[in-house]
């Protein structure tokens, strides 16, 4: 069977493309152009009735929500690679996925939108600084968790790192300063230096060109 991913690499679907690229599995990329309203078309709503990106089909299984998709991919295809080895570490990976969505995603996206002046947000450095300040507590938690270690869970890159780094990438795009959280900054360099992440960056550029074409 071949995994089918619906979305664009400039959306939360990017973390799912990152996962399949890390895993080296065959997948089909089904573009869904939100600018043209394709996420509200009946054909796509039959896959994801929420009308949001991303979605995944693998055989008889259909999933929406990017973190759930990555949990599945790591479990189904990532044994010995993306999937942590123990039940405790798999639970910790889930913990970090919930944590980053609840604690970090909203201010990160706010900072990005106010940096770029998109999605109805005005360019506003003061608002960017306000959103960065809201991240200080969560970044401290992450920085302490990374003290003395290269990866969040276990001794190798796993879905835990991928999921958290994929959300913090919004901040990277907003050119946020990670100081004084140097453990976070060094860890992000390790994550974003991976070939699979760079491949997703190429996909994102191609998807942006399609949307603007």
| Order of adjacent strands in the largest pleated sheet | 2-1-3-4
Helix content: 55-70%
Low-confidence stretches: none
The proportion of strand residues reads 5-15%
Radius of gyration: 17 Å
Major sheet: 4 strands, mixed
Tally of alpha and pi helices? 10
Structural category: alpha+beta
Q: What string gives the helices and strands in order?
A: EHEHEEHHHHHHHH
Report the end-to-end length measured between terminal Cα atoms: 32 Å
Give the overall shape, derived from the CA principal axes.
Answer: globular
User: Whole-number average pLDDT?
Assistant: 95
Total strand segments: 4
Structure overview:
The chain is globular. Helix content is 56%, strand content 8%. The longest helix has 18 residues, at 195-212. It has 213 residues and is of the alpha+beta class. The chain has a 4-stranded mixed β-sheet with strand order 2-1-3-4, with helices on one face. The protein has 10 helices and 4 strands; from the N terminus they run E-H-E-H-E-E-H-H-H-H-H-H-H-H.
